[in-house]
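Sequence in, structure out. First:
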Amino acid sequence: MTELLTPLRRRPVQRRSAERVERMLDACAQILDEEGYDALTTTRIARRADVAIGSLYQFFPGKRAIAQALALRNLELFGERVARRLAAGGFADWTDTVGTIIEIYVDMHRSVPGFRELRFGDIADVHLLDSALENKSVVAERLRALLVETFAVGDTAELARVLTIAVEAGDAVLKLAFRRDPRGDPEIVAEAKLLVHSYLSQYLART
């Protein structure tokens, strides 16, 4: 996996500075939920976060960098939730994690501020998370690492390709689910689970 991009001009050292950066990200998420990416500006973020615009520019060069930091925070939260659920066990094999992983994604879409609009960053830039990989490929790489670690799956180039296709396909169907229903049409979410699980089961059968 290539290096994730670093949106911060400088990392906050003091707790107070770190809290200020988190307030900026929270403000970014709120504006995204309310009005979308086009309405996002550094001035509005600073005002909503109750920080001086100069303080914002100490850490971020512009709105894209703030969106990038928020997308990275989303990715970390997603990875942490998936890792905790995988560690809890109860899966016959690694392909049976599909439903759980999709449910985590759907729950974040419903409940995490800013996730509905930004998700993992495609609305801003398909390379927002990584300069070499597209955003959904970064997500696939994170899932691959978790599955390999948890289930001792053979870490092959074919597995990487299959998971990238699964993430792309699942994301497309889930987008349809949320276009049909702001909470995610449950029938289409169920179809997304079936589609991805069936595809991955075929891969497992031939390995």
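Second:
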Amino acid sequence: MTQPTAVIFDVGNVLFNWNLRFLYERLIEDDRALDAFLRDVMTMQWHLQHDAGRPFAETSAELIAQHPEQAALIAALGPRFNETIRGEVPGMAALVAELHGADVPLFAITNFSGEFWRPFRAAHAAFFDRFRDVVVSGDEGLMKPDPAIYELALARFGLAAGEAFFVDDNIVNVEAAAAMGIAAHHFSNANLLREVLAAQGLLGDCEVSM
């Protein structure tokens, strides 16, 4: 059996905490109104269009036409998307730095809007400069768990399936990767992931460069 030599991460809720609520709890004071807005207006189903590649200008115009009374709140997502991200998942910055220090090739596959990805990536350049490449669903028109995005990523990263170790918080994405012969881990926390990576031979004694 081929031993994994590289790690492929998901981004949202593996490397960085992400939730639309993080932005809108700043803009809607009443909890019931906030819950209703995220349930009935800015739903995850609507937001997933961006991860599939649709531009925010189109999706927001359509949503504002349906909910004109919420126009300002809907429009806020574009310029303030980075406020939907609230810091690194505990322990993950150190773990990424440790892997990088051990010369383990780091990559990512993320379901993320291409237009939102660029300012987010720029805001965290020091973190993502450790990654050799990132496949962004919105730029490719492909989303996890579609096998095609894994195939594209492996080809771009120059990896055989057995050489990759994939980490995602969505079990469906993990199962899709595993079905392709990729070693895959359903992420819950950094401590458990560290143990699994060590068992895979991907972590050893190394100097951590923060």
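Remark: Confidence is low (pLDDT under 50) at residues 205-210.
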